[in-house]
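Would you mind giving me a polypeptide sequence along with per-residue structure tokens?
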Amino acid sequence: MKKQEVYEFLNDKKIWHEIDEHEAVFTMEDLEKVDLKYPNLDAKNLFVRDDKKKNYYLISVKANKRVDLKEFKKRFQTRRLSFSSDKDLMEKLKLMPGSVSPLGILNNTDKDVIFYLDKEFLKEPSIIGVHPNENTAMVWLKTQELIDLIKEHGNIVHVVEL
């Protein structure tokens, strides 16, 4: 799904959402310059794979958090992790670099990308901001509805402290 398809999908499912259209952003630093409706509720998304290229993970945390992949490996008993290639990103999520989003999991036809979400997004107001599969907008969703969408799609979701 591209941006407009994401909007139509959310409307068809009658899922509450708000949209902030903005210039293309490629880094979290770029995003800091954008005036957002819900500051500090946007997600930083990391698409990683294990060293055998057998398991792929999308990790979403609050923008101000850092993810230590060595610590993540130890806590969640994965193999050694590294960032996925642009080719893997396109193959698994149909996304371009800079546009990584949990909504990209809805493009994962093999349903083999495992989603890890920082449970901090469930705290009030329980809203998360993610790209609509393009880096020219932010879509604000209720966190639980995003979780439900991904589970309904058939991917594994872990809500954990990160």
